[in-house]
Amino acid sequence: MKTKKITAILLCVVIIFSAFGVNAFAAKKKFYLVLGDSIGYGSGLRNSEEACYGKIVADTNGYDYANDAIPGHTTQNLLARLENASVKEHVKKADIISISIGGNNFLLGNMAALLFEILVKGDDSRAKETVDGFYKDFDAIVKKIRSLNPDVVILMQTLYNPQTDYVGDAYQVAIDILNKAIVRYSKENKGEIVIVDVAAKLKDSANDFAEDGIHPSAQGNEKIAVAVLKKLAELGLGKKTTPVINEKGVDISVPSVFTYPLTLYGRALHLLAQVYGVFA
User: Fold this and answer.
1) DSSP letters of 158-220?
2) Which contacts qualify for 75-79: CB closer than 8 Å, 24 or more apart?
3) DSSP result, 207-234
4) 29: exposed, middle or buried (C-beta count within 10 Å: 0-12, 13-18, 19+)?
5) Which CATH class is domain 32-279?
6) Alpha-carbon 164 to chain mean position
7) β-strand 31-36 against 153-157: which pairing, if any?
8) Which pTM does this prediction carry?
9) Which of 133, 237, 251, 275 stands 20 to 30 A from 139 (CA)?
10) What pLDDT tens digit does each residue of the chain (280 aa) get?
11) Residue 209, exposed/middle/buried by CB under 10 A (0-12, 13-18, 19+)?
């Protein structure tokens, strides 16, 4: 009789400690947060919530996950968003944060004038001024995140070039300046950010980008996910580098009538540059 009681007690102890072990393991599950703009949001996909790169990374590594990226956001918008109560709570509990930001600083800052100055006049001063503002804002963003969560790993993505033709040439000038600023920030603030070089991965303009000519397609999102997964594996924060695709991304459809004018504008600026070169 005593033996049965002792056995029952021991069994209860084992069950309790087993449950405690499971709960302790669950408590260690990493929390992955995406911040930034439409790239982070997954605007090139119809089913962005389930198929953007952030969701792929979370599904692959078994992370808890939240996506607080907002289409159209600039660095100023992201800085303001970090005052949102819900976003602040996500930042506080995050183990890893991916940031995609900076493209809209150009797109929403008189892009037509920027293209004109680069393609026609060969003047990149406006791009440099824009990046100077980006750098100042980004420093404030990182400091704000650190004030909420000193230990979080911040992954900062480089900006890719989705354009071809003459507009692509102008984009590349501006993008190179911005990406160099990200590298400079990393060197001047050692340990604050980890760079994920997305720009080096998205090179297939026909397939890596949606029909809007701006955002990553399903393939592009998968490539970004792989880049993030490989970086996390290097950091010891994940083991898998082959993405788990629970739901295949579906690219958005955009009639060419909405995208072709930008190509025509680039070609017109190229011709204007030739004339300008003759009479300058």
Assistant:
1) PPP----HHHHHHHHHHHHHHHHHHHHHHHHTTTT-EEE-GGGT---TTTSB-TTSSSB-HHH
2) 75/101, 75/102, 75/105, 75/133, 75/134, 75/137, 75/138, 75/141, 76/137, 77/104, 78/35, 78/36, 78/37, 78/137, 78/141, 79/137, 79/140, 79/141, 79/144
3) TSB-TTSSSB-HHHHHHHHHHHHHHHHH
4) exposed
5) alpha beta
6) 21
7) unpaired
8) 0.85
9) 237
10) 445 454 444 444 445 445 444 444 445 789 999 999 999 999 999 999 999 999 999 999 999 999 999 999 999 999 999 999 999 999 999 999 999 999 999 887 678 888 888 988 889 999 999 999 999 999 999 999 999 999 999 999 999 999 888 888 989 999 999 999 999 999 999 999 999 999 999 999 889 999 998 999 999 999 999 999 999 999 999 999 999 999 999 999 886 655 645 555 556 656 656 665 544 5
11) buried
Contact 91, 149 (CB under 8 A): yes
The encoded tokens of residue 180 equal: 């160099």
The residue assigned the tokens 């949102």 is 84
Q: Which residue type does 200 have?
A: A
Could you tell me if 175 and 199 are in contact, meaning their C-beta atoms sit under 8 angstroms apart?
yes
User: Residue type for 63, please?
Assistant: Y
Q: How far apart are CA 234 and CA 143, in angstroms?
A: 24
Tokens of 122: 């060969």
Note the helical H segments in 28-124. 38-41, 48-51, 53-61, 75-81, 85-93, 103-107, 111-119
Per the DSSP assignment, residues forming a β-bridge with 155 are: 98, 194
Report yes or no: 162 and 205 within 8 Å, Cβ to Cβ: yes
Residue with tokens 């004109």: 116
